[in-house]
Amino acid sequence: MSDDTQAARIQQAAERLRNSRKPVVLTGAGVSKESGVPTFRDAVDGLWAQYDPSQLATPTAFMNNPKLVWDWYEYRRSMISVARPNLGHRALADLEQRFPHLPLITQNVDDLHEQAGSTNVIHLHGNIAQSKCFFNCQGDPTLIDVSTLTWDKENGPPACPHCGRWVRPNVVWFGEILPADQLQAATIASRQADIMLVVGTSGLVTPAASLPGIARSAGAFIIEINPDYSAITRIADIKLDGPSGEVMPHLLAALDS
Ligand code: OAD
């Protein structure tokens, strides 16, 4: 990696993007942080600094204490429902003006990329606004519109209207496999890319964390945007330091200059 100044690295990244035919974007929780949605692994205010994922984000945790897990997701849903896209989301949506159908692979369960205007979003870890039958009794996924149900919220999740068993959030928990169609689309986009922009992820959770390596092995140039070091930094060809809400608009401005 070069040790030029950040401004020079932004110019280099913009030059690469200008000549790109097939860029792809991979985002993580960092891109939503400036919208008020906490990340998972930031040491002070990350969710996993305050909560134990084994008690809240596994199928076993849900089976052991469905109310605790449901209520925690309700809390996160309420936080996310008031969040609005930040300048990082908006700059990534603007990039799609230059690269129509730009694949944007995200690990985030919010819809802030879509709210900003991105249209080709691949959600690897599900959608927190949705709910589904824990047993997917009508096929995978059996989505349930909980706004049409009435139930005693003191007792935790509602019952599936089809089978009477639990409803759960439509997110991927530890130990679960990712939605096959989304993972396949993400893998194909990564293999075909000539540039991958990796924005706001620690790169610690596979299979998402493997995608930059897949892209790089297939010849892609890796540009990382993160205020910190991550597991991706060592394979990044250019690392742009800083929050995505600041760095992405600079990159877009350099691309247009
Ligand atoms: P992490 O919380 O692991 O990492 C967030 C990354 O964002 C870190 O590398 C931060 O340095 C960086 N960051 C912080 N603020 C930023 C900002 N303003 N702009 C850009 N980057 C910033 O989040 P993920 O990598 O998304 O999985 O975590 C991956 C998965 O682990 C999540 O999808 C979730 C979690 O357990 C599931 O829920 C299945």
Description of the structure:
There is one protein chain. This protein has 11 helices and 9 strands. It has helices spanning 6-18, 30-33, 47-50, 53-56, 59-64, 66-81, 87-98, 112-116, 180-192, 211-217, 244-256; strands spanning 23-27, 104-106, 121-123, 126-133, 143-144, 167-171, 195-199, 221-226, 238-241. Helix 10 (211-217) links the parallel strand 7 (195-199) and strand 8 (221-226). It is elongated and about 60 Å long. The protein starts with 5 loop residues before the first helix and ends with a helix. The relative contact order is 0.19. Bound molecules: 2'-O-acetyl adenosine-5-diphosphoribose. Residues 28-31, 33-34, 39-42, 46, 57, 107, 125, 172, 200-202, 204-205, 226-228, 230, 243-244 line the site of 2'-O-acetyl adenosine-5-diphosphoribose.
| Shape, principal axes of CA atoms | elongated
Distance from first to last alpha carbon: 24 Å
Point out poorly predicted stretches. none
Rg, please?
Answer: 19 Å
List keywords for this structure.
257 residues; alpha/beta; elongated; binds 2'-O-acetyl adenosine-5-diphosphoribose
